[in-house]
C-alpha cells in the first residue's frame, strides 16, 4: 500500500497527506482515499466516510458509477486523445449530440475545454468578440475560477484574489441580492441589486462599454445562495435592452444538482452563453461552452480551443454521465432528496441559534453561521466541519466570509443515506455548537 511520507522521508501518520504538498494548498481533511463508490469514500486507513462534498459536485453520478467506469475503460483502449480541432473522435460527437438534447433552445453551438476556469475565460473572450466591448460585470460573492481572468471576476473570498494584482482590466462587481445578509426580504434585495446595476451602467461601466454579465445560478463558493429568478429576469431584460451578453456559469449548479437540469431554469430567462463543467463527466476533466451559432460565429476561427479540451476519455465519461442522469432519473432524485435534506436541516437549525439560515436548492444545501450580534461566524462553520469529520461525514465550508457549511451529496444519494447524513449532522451540531438549554 502507498505510505504517505513527510518531507524528511519518515512515514506520515496514517491517512495524512504528504508534507511535500505545497502549503499554498488548503487541505480540508487529512484523508487519503484508497477507493470510493457511490456516496462512500474509503481511506487508506480503512475508515469509510459518507461523502457529502462530492468534489464540490463533480462526482455527480456518485464515485465510480459502473457505467461511467465502463465507458472510460472502453475508450482508453480505443483512442485516448486526438486534438479535436485536428482529428474529430466519436465520443465528442456523441457528447455534442447529447448536450443538444439538454441545452436550452437556441444554444445550439458548443466547444470544449478542460476546466471551469478555462470555460469562464472562453466565455469572456467570446462576449468581447461578439460585442466589440471591453467590460464584464460580475456579482459580489461570485466564484468563477483561479486563473487571473476568472479570479478577477471572483469575489467569494480574499484568498482567491489578494496579493496577485494587477488583475484583468475591464471588470466591475455589482451587488448580489443577498437578502439574508441585508436582513431584507428577497423582493427588496432584488430591487436594490437591480437598481445598483442600473446605476453602475450609468456611471461606471457605460452600456457602450459593457460586453457581458456573468452570474452563477446559485453562488457556490460564495455561500450556496440561489440567484433569485426575478434577478436573473432583470439581468436578461437589461442584457436584451443594452445588447449585453448574459453568461450563466453553471459549473457548480448544472447537470441536475439543483433539482432542475440547469440551475438557471428556476427562471424563464435563457442565457446567451452557458458554461458547464464539474458534474458533466463524473470526475473526468472536461468543460463545455454553449451559445447560439450566430454568437459563436462572431469569434475568430482558432480563437478558442486548447491541447486537451474535449479529451476522448473525458468525453466518453460525459456521455455515460448524461445517460445515467437520464436513465436513473437523477434530476428528480436531486429534487426529492434535496427536499428531504432541507427539511432535516431546517429542523436541526431550529435547535441552534448560531445557524442563522438553512437553505438549499436540490442537492446544494447549506447552513450559514452567525454570532450573537448577527455577524458572520466562520469558527462555528469550521467546528461543524470538524465534528462531522469525527463522525465520518465529509462536509465543506464556503462563503466569502467562510461562515457557511455546504452539503453536497451525489445525485445518486439514497433516502437512507440522506437520513444517515442528517443524523450525523445533528449529532455534530450538538457537539460543535452545544444544545440550547
Ligand atoms: N465556476 C464555478 C461556479 C465554480 O464553482 C468553479 C469551481 N469551483 C469554477 C468556475 C472553476 O472551475 P475549475 O476549478 O474547474 O477551474
From TrEMBL:
InterPro entries, A to Z: Aminotrans_3, Aminotrans_3_PPA_site, Class-III_PLP-dep_AT, PyrdxlP-dep_Trfase, PyrdxlP-dep_Trfase_major, PyrdxlP-dep_Trfase_small
Cofactor list: pyridoxal 5'-phosphate
Native source organism of the sequence: Rhodococcoides corynebacterioides
Protein's name according to its UniProt entry: 4-aminobutyrate aminotransferase
Residues covered by region (Disordered): 1-21
Gene3D superfamilies: Aspartate Aminotransferase, domain 1 (3.90.1150.10), Type I PLP-dependent aspartate aminotransferase-like (Major domain) (3.40.640.10)
PROSITE patterns attached to this UniProt entry: AA_TRANSFER_CLASS_3
Pfam families: Aminotran_3 (PF00202)
Key words of the record: Aminotransferase, Pyridoxal phosphate, Transferase
Similarity comment text for this entry: Belongs to the class-III pyridoxal-phosphate-dependent aminotransferase family.
GO molecular function: 4-aminobutyrate:2-oxoglutarate transaminase activity
The EC number(s) this enzyme carries: 2.6.1.19
Bilayer-crossing regions: none
Amino acid at each position: 500500500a502507498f505510505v504517505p511520507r513527510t518531507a524528511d522521508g519518515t512515514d506520515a501518520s496514517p491517512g495524512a497527506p504528504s508534507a511535500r504538498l505545497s502549503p499554498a494548498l488548503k487541505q480540508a481533511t487529512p484523508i487519503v482515499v484508497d477507493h470510493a463508490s457511490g456516496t462512500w469514500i474509503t481511506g487508506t486507513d480503512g475508515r469509510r466516510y459518507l461523502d457529502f462534498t462530492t468534489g464540490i459536485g463533480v462526482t455527480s453520478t456518485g464515485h465510480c458509477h459502473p457505467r461511467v467506469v465502463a465507458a472510460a475503460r472502453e475508450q482508453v483502449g480505443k483512442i485516448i486523445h486526438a486534438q479535436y480541432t485536428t482529428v474529430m473522435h466519436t465520443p465528442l460527437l456523441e457528447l455534442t449530440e447529447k448536450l443538444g438534447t439538454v441545452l436550452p433552445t437556441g444554444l445550439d453551438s458548443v466547444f470544449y475545454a478542460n476546466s471551469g476556469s478555462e470555460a469562464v475565460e472562453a466565455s469572456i473572450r467570446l462576449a468581447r468578440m461578439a460585442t466589440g466591448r471591453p467590460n464584464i460585470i460580475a456579482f459580489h460573492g461570485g466564484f468563477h475560477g483561479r486563473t487571473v481572468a476568472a479570479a478577477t471576476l471572483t469575489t467569494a473570498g480574499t484568498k482567491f484574489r489578494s496579493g496577485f494584482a494587477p488583475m484583468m482590466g475591464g471588470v466591475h462587481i455589482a451587488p448580489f441580492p443577498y437578502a439574508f445578509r441585508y436582513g431584507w426580504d428577497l423582493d427588496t434585495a432584488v430591487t436594490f441589486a437591480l437598481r445598483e446595476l442600473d446605476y453602475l451602467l450609468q456611471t461606471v461601466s457605460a452600456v457602450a462599454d459593457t460586453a457581458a454579465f456573468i452570474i452563477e445560478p446559485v453562488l457556490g463558493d460564495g455561500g450556496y445562495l440561489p440567484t433569485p429568478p426575478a434577478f436573473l429576469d432583470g439581468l436578461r431584460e437589461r442584457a436584451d435592452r443594452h445588447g449585453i451578453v448574459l453568461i450563466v456559469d453553471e459549473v457548480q449548479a448544472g447537470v441536475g444538482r439543483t433539482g432542475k437540469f440547469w440551475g438557471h431554469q428556476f427562471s424563464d430567462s435563457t442565457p446567451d452563453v452557458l458554461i458547464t463543467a464539474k458534474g458533466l463527466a463524473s470526475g473526468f476533466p472536461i468543460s463545455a461552452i454553449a451559445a447560439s451559432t450566430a454568437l459563436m460565429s462572431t469569434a475568430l476561427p482558432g480563437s478558442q480551443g486548447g491541447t486537451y479540451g474535449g479529451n476522448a476519455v473525458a468525453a466518453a465519461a460525459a456521455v455515460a454521465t448524461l445517460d445515467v442522469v437520464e436513465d436513473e432519473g437523477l434530476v428528480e432524485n436531486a429534487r426529492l432528496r434535496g427536499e428531504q435534506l432541507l427539511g432535516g436541516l431546517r429542523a436541526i437549525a431550529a435547535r441552534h441559534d448560531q445557524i442563522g439560515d438553512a437553505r438549499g436548492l436540490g442537492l446544494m444545501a447549506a447552513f450559514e453561521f452567525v454570532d450573537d450580534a448577527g455577524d458572520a461566524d466562520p469558527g462555528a462553520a469550521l467546528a461543524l466541519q470538524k465534528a462531522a469529520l469525527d463522525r465520518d461525514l465529509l462536509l465543506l465550508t464556503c462563503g466569502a466570509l467562510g461562515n457557511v457549511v455546504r452539503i453536497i451529496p451525489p445525485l445518486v444519494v439514497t433516502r437512507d443515506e440522506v437520513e444517515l447524513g442528517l443524523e450525523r449532522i445533528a449529532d455534530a451540531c450538538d457537539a460543535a455548537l452545544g444544545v440550547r438549554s
